[in-house]
Design a protein that fits this description.
With 167 residues, the protein is of the alpha/beta class. It contains five helices and five strands; from the N terminus they run βββαβαβααα. Strands 3-2-1-4-5 form a five-stranded mixed β-sheet. The protein starts with a strand and ends with a helix.
Amino acid sequence: MRVLGIDCGSESTGYGVVEETAGGRLTCHATGAIQLKTGTPMAARLQKIFAELTAIITEHRPEIVAIEDVFYAVNVKTALKLGQVRGVAMLAASVSGLQVAEYSPLSIKSAVAGYGRAEKHQVQQMVTRLLNLSTLPEPTDASDALAIAICHIHTASTKSRYEAATS
């Protein structure tokens, strides 16, 4: 299974492509962040995110896209911008014929670090270990995106084993 994880943000949108091999080993195929310039109109930012995510999907051919679910935000303006970026990420997946899985921040941290309230650096270190990377993925948006992809792989594997056991 190959998963594109996306950590949505209006200034930096992280991405990570992770694959689970037949032996259950996790491999990182790509990671990075789409950096957006402050002061650029939102429509131009959204277009750049859409274009770059579509190119990543075309190049790495994931089977599914996983993103972080909506969470509570104190600042309404920030929440609206995040919602727009999430919509564009979902659109890029949909236009490419892919389904989107959504996970809460608590689920993502639990799946990767074993603790739903883990700090960013703990998630980053666990992602590095799980993917056997030689260096920490930077920026943290990229490591968060890898964590989202790993969360989906772990969740899908658990669901598959459960369904096999109950049938």
